[in-house]
Amino acid sequence: MNDWLAALLSSWKRRFTPFHAWIGELKDPTTLRADALAGLTVALVLIPQSMAYAQLAGLPAYIGLYASFLPVMIGALFGSSRQLGTGPVAIVSLMSAAAMQPYISQGVETIVVYSALLAIMIGFFQLSLGLLKLGVLVDFLSHPVVIGFTNAGALIIGTSQVPKLFGLNVKADQFDHHYEFLWAILSSLPKTQVITVLMAIIALGMLLTLRKYFPRQPNVLITVVVTTLLSWALGYQTAGGSVVGAIPQGLPSFNLPSISMSIQTLGSLATSAMIIGLLGFVEAISIAKAMAAQTRQRLSANQELVGQGLANISAGLFSGYAVSGSFSRSAVNFAAGAVTGFSSVITGILVAITLLFLTPLLYDLPQATLAAVIIMAVINLLKFAPIKHAWKVEKHDGVVAVITLVATLVFAPHLDQGIFLGVILSLGLFLYRTMSPRFVEVSRHADGSMRDAERHHLKTSDTVAIYRFDGDLYFANTGYLEGKLLNAIAQKPNLKVLVLDMESVDQVDSTGEEMLHKLAERLRFNGIWFYVARIKLPVYEAFQRSGLAEQISENRFFRERTQAIKDAKKHLGDTIDIEPFLKYTPAELSVAQQVQQQSSSELEPKAKPLTA
Questions:
Q1: CATH 3.30.750.24 in the chain, residue ranges
Q2: Which of 257, 315, 340, 598 could form a disulfide with 22 if both were Cys (CB 3.0 to 4.6 A apart)?
Q3: Which DSSP string corresponds to 279-334?
């Protein structure tokens, strides 16, 4: 009992103090200097980005700064990645805005509270998954679903910023469908404010130029400083331009979201929290894995869930909103030479200094600049090449990616519907593929291996047949295998021996076992000897428990197919033809190879597969 308790305490200590693995490295001045520089570099990107993303989430700009203070540090201290930059990100901000869509009419103050509550829900969901070691649940969001949704999200985010570039009084939260919002933009273009367009052109031009010619410079910060100074010097707000305005000075205080809501509203937020929690974690763990592959550091998905969960809880408790790992800022952190998670602690401290002393300087920051920052950030999310690649690998995956993309665009701003459709479709297509695994009759190839007889035009026997089934045997494909076997037997009226190669079968459920039981009885009734070859031990043990091994006969299970053939030959003698399964002598092999090449060279690909 004491050993069990000690092991549990040790496990929980590792879960909640992972920073002990790197905190000792800060004694090295070189590491400390590198982390400090990296933290400063990320802060210069994070401060303007977080304000822009908060507005994307339908929140005041300063909420983004609140979400960039404690969550950034906590995500680094309790996660497993040393370089992952936690904080506001585009996709999570968009999904948070979508979750708030039904409550827009209740005012900004209510949305701020609901967004904080949503972050807490996301945090507890992620934390629970991490503590229960259920990180595998994110695998339900397959790669095609994620890339389809990400591309759709990038398009929605980009178009949602167009009114700010043209100075139009059109807000996405005023419409039930995104296409209605786009039509409203087109209808309002005659009301374009020239001064806003000019500021947007300056901001976009600077971001593009700095990114292309000065990639190492903090292009976002430089653009924000220059356009803010221009706005102040030229009286941009007085001329009709929209600016960020007053930002509360000081650090966010602890504030448990307190608001009355219906069970229906709570359920809706909980559903959104689970979807955002999973998708946000997929984004975080993806960039963490990419960096870990280069640094060769140990990465734990469950520990990262703990870190991201605690970061979201802290964001909600200190007036922020949902956060996740950022692709762009993590890349900046990594490129700047961050060695440990202390770089993110430095970033959080610098955000705190900004909230305490520098917020008055942000008053004249143009909204058009923040829109330009968002648009430039989401351009990196638009990647259609992975969809094309998925199509090449497996057309079903390509279909899932395309349908998820289209559905997300059509259902926007109800983004969860696009994700649900993608997940259901990917699971459905997976089930469809596994319902009809490959089933082939094999025979001896000229190279000595057993291969697909039909594909390689190999000689088969009328009295002996070896069939290979490439897949698990469960309720969805049991009927398929049974039909294939019965049809194959019907085509061989003189069949006396049937060998089922089960090397590719990792598990068999009760439905599959029952089918094999009936098949064995049917074959015995028809005088056909039934053998099972190359079965895996767990499957064989399951057959022993069920009694199927005894019913077939323990003597009919063999490690190799040739052993089964030899056993049948010993009992049935010359009544069966086993010549198609015999290995060639060296002289015969040379002749057989020549014949095989002549007969099938036109049908086989130039690069022959190693196995059939």
A1: 438-600
A2: 340
A3: HHHHHHHHHHHHHHHHHT----HHHHHHHHHHHHHHHHHTT----EEEHHHHHHHH
